[in-house]
Amino acid sequence: MGSLCVECAEKTAVPAGGALAVDREKFSALVTQRAESEPLITVERREITEIPDTPAIIAAGPLASEALSEKIAGLCSGNLSFYDAAAPIVTAESIDMSKAFCQSRYDRGEPDDYINCPMNKEEYEAFYAELVNAEVALVHDFDKNRGVYEGCMPVEIMAKRGKDTIRFGPMKPSGLTDPATGRRPWANLQLRKENEQGTMFNLVGFQTNLKFGEQKRVFSMIPALRNAEFVRYGVMHRNTFINSPEALEYGYRFRGRDNLWFAGQITGVEGYMESAGSGIIAGINAARFLKGGKPLELPAESMLSSLAAYVCAPNKNFQPMGASFGLLPPLDEKIRDKRERYEALSARALTCLKESLEGQGELLTEE
After folding, report:
1. Which domain holds residue 118?
2. Among 11, 23, 120, 138, which is most exposed with the fewest C-beta within 10 angstroms?
């Protein structure tokens, strides 16, 4: 569909197995440069504190300012807040590679896309005992009673659900073989490149709200991270999204105002691709509205359509959602093998989306 965000992501990608990950600094700089150099775009750098009456797309992100958040809350009859957490980052040179190995899960992608930090049963159980008893950082009173979004749950909270919870989550060893033992590890933490140069690595799935000193103490119990140098510790912050099932129509248009759309994580879509997808749909629909056209129609079999449908469907317990095969309509035939089933769902989605866009190509080209 010609997404600028995807184009910029591919140009600034860093190895991540089967995932598309980016060098964040280079990605954001390239998107900014492209926007500034486009003759049809005027960039104004100022705080927006009022929602305009003219046609607009609100893509304020998950951390909209207090002033704008208040206006959005008033427009939406209240908004929701939840905690979001980030994982720590360590320097590459401080990782003990004698206790680690490079391999992508199930050998997807290049072998050095991930550094694996294996643990045996004794090491894991000692680590687990310290993790669930570690001291957490205080949170602001404003957010004390807010919920924790499942997709960004701090690892220490997840661990308290049971001894093996994180061993089947962020520390799952499936699809890996430790060359030191020739067997699958008991538990395993994966590290992913944080930048293109590979000088920093992110602790995948280890979002946390532990105190900084506790992060250093507990995470250093992982053998490969015994002497790890932390460039950034994990942090927790407020994240805001609107009650989209009540506020938005399919296509991200605000109910009750024909000339207003929302896009990005503030709608409750979770993830870079999902945010880019909601943005391009909102953008095309805004352009069609200004031209007197109909909103873009996408097939239910496509992920973009299913995610947009989820966001606006009635849901009393609405929480953010990333792309998931569970959102797609089931296949006509039953395929037991998960990988084959996902490949079939993907192939169907691409075929249906291509046919749908070709059928609406004239308007897309004009815009």
Report:
1. 89-238
2. 138
